[in-house]
Design brief:
Helix content: 40-55%
CATH architecture of the largest domain: 3-Layer(aba) Sandwich
Shape: globular
Structural class: alpha/beta
Distance between the termini: 31 Å
Order of helices and strands: HEHEEHEHEHHEHEHEHEHEHEHEHEHHHH
Low-confidence stretches: 1-6
Radius of gyration: 21 Å
Strand order of the largest sheet: 3-2-1-4-5-6-7
Mean pLDDT: 90
Largest sheet: 7 strands, parallel
Strand content: 15-25%
CATH class of the largest domain: Alpha Beta
C-alpha cells in the first residue's frame, strides 16, 4: 500500500462550512465513521442553524468567532488571521472547505495547503459570474489541490475559473434511499386533501430558489383549477412577502405552510404530494429533488442546467422556463391532466435515484477527492 493510502486512512481533517445544515450533518456523520480525526469549523456561529440534530459523535467543534450572520467586510481580515492561527495550532493534513467564496477563499488566503474546495450546489455558477465573486472563486480554485462538486454544469464552470481537470471529482451528494421511499402518508388525510391534487416544495424562501415564481405560478394555476393544493415547507428572508401574497389571493385555505420540518418527518411530506416543484434560479444536483425522486414523486422544475441533468421531460417529470410563473402554471395544469401517468413517472424517478443518488454509494467519492488533494501540488489554470 502506498504512503498516500496510509495517510488517507488516518489523518486530521478540518471541515470548514458556512453554517450547520442537514447537508453538513450528512457529511460529518459519514466522516465520523471513517478513521479520520475530524474537526468542524462553522463560519456563522451566532444564530440558530437550520439543522437541529447535534454534531455526530466524534466530531470536534472549533470556535474562532461568535458573530451572528454573514462575516462583514471589515471583519474578514481578522477572521483570516484567526483562521491562520487555528490552522497553525491544529496542523490538519487537509482542509475541506465550502462554499467556495465563503470558506475555501479565506482558507486559500491563509496560505494553507492542501485545500479541497467543495461547491455547495451552484456557488461557482451563480456567485462567480462577475466582480468580487468571480475573483474570489478563481483565487480559491487556482490554489486548491482538488475540487469536488455535485453536477457537470458546476464542473464546467470550475474549469472556466482555472481548476485543473484532473483534480475535479464530481458526485451528487445523494440521499438515504432507505428513509426516502415510495410509501403512503397520513398527512394528506390529516389535511383533508384526499381528493385534491397536491403540489410540494421544500426549497428555502430566498430569491435564488425562485419562491416568488413558485407562489405566483401556483396562484395562476389555482385560479383555473379549484382542486389544486400546495404543501409549502421552508422559511427565509421572503417570508413576509410570501405570506402577504397568499393572503392577498385569498388562497390561505389551499396552501399549507409547514415551516422547517425535521429530517425524520420530511419523507412523509413528499409522500403526501402528487408533484414536486422547484423554481430554483441556480442549482447543482438538488438534494430535495433527489429526495422527491427517491420517494417516487414526479418533478416539475425550472430548466436550469443542474435540473436538466436529473429530470427527463415526459419520463420522470417536466421542465418549465426559468423565472416564468405562467410557464410554471401551465406545467402544473398539464401534469394534472396527465395524473394517470404520474405514478409510473415517479417510479422512473425512483429508479434514477437508486442508480445515481444513493448516498452510501456516493460518499466514497469524497475520499477519492481527499486522496487527490494529498497526492501532489495543485496546478494553476
Amino acid at each position: 500500500m502506498t504512503h498516500e493510502h496510509n495517510r488517507l486512512r488516518d489523518m486530521r481533517v478540518l471541515y470548514f462550512s458556512r453554517s450547520y445544515t442537514p447537508h453538513d450533518h450528512r457529511f460529518l456523520a459519514a466522516l465520523s465513521r471513517t478513521e479520520h480525526e475530524v474537526t468542524y469549523l462553522r463560519l456563522e456561529n451566532g444564530r440558530r442553524p437550520p439543522e437541529s440534530r447535534p454534531l455526530p459523535e466524534g466530531i470536534r467543534p472549533l470556535i474562532l468567532w461568535g458573530e451572528s450572520g454573514p462575516i462583514r467586510g471589515n471583519a474578514w481580515p481578522m477572521m483570516v488571521v484567526r483562521l491562520r492561527r487555528a490552522l497553525h495550532d491544529l496542523k490538519p493534513d487537509l482542509v475541506h472547505a465550502g462554499p467556495v467564496q465563503a470558506c475555501a477563499f479565506p482558507t486559500a488566503v491563509s496560505g494553507f495547503r492542501p485545500l479541497l474546495s467543495m461547491s455547495w450546489g451552484s456557488d461557482p455558477m451563480h456567485g462567480a459570474r462577475r466582480g468580487l465573486g468571480r475573483l474570489s472563486a478563481r483565487f480559491a480554485l487556482q490554489r486548491s489541490a482538488a475540487f469536488t462538486c455535485d453536477c457537470l454544469a458546476v464542473r464546467r464552470r470550475a474549469l472556466e475559473l482555472g481548476m485543473a481537470e484532473d483534480r475535479i471529482v464530481v458526485f451528487p451528494w445523494g440521499v438515504d434511499l432507505d428513509h426516502f421511499t415510495p410509501s403512503a402518508s397520513a398527512l394528506r388525510s390529516a389535511l383533508g386533501w384526499e381528493g385534491e391534487f397536491v403540489l410540494f416544495s421544500s426549497r428555502s424562501w430566498e430569491p435564488i430558489y425562485g419562491i416568488q415564481v413558485l407562489v405566483e405560478g401556483f396562484l395562476l394555476a389555482a385560479r383555473q383549477d379549484p382542486e389544486l393544493r400546495l404543501l409549502l415547507l421552508g422559511d427565509g428572508s421572503l417570508r413576509p412577502l410570501v405570506e402577504r401574497r397568499i393572503a392577498q389571493a385569498a388562497a390561505r385555505e389551499r396552501v399549507h405552510l409547514a415551516g422547517r420540518v425535521q429530517h425524520d418527518r420530511l419523507s412523509g411530506y413528499y409522500r403526501a404530494a402528487d408533484l414536486y416543484l422547484s423554481a430554483s434560479r441556480s442549482d447543482g444536483s438538488s438534494v430535495s429533488l433527489m429526495e422527491a425522486m427517491a420517494c417516487g414523486l414526479p418533478a416539475l422544475v425550472s430548466d436550469i442546467p443542474g435540473n436538466q441533468e436529473w429530470v427527463e421531460p415526459g419520463v420522470s417529470g417536466w421542465w418549465f422556463a426559468d423565472g416564468d410563473p405562467k410557464a410554471l402554471a401551465e406545467g402544473i395544469l398539464r401534469a394534472k391532466r396527465h395524473a394517470d401517468s404520474l405514478k409510473a413517472m415517479g417510479m422512473r424517478g425512483r429508479e434514477i435515484a437508486e442508480t445515481r443518488a444513493d448516498w452510501q454509494e456516493n460518499f466514497p467519492r469524497l475520499l477519492e477527492a481527499y486522496q487527490i488533494a494529498l497526492a501532489g501540488p495543485r496546478a494553476l489554470g
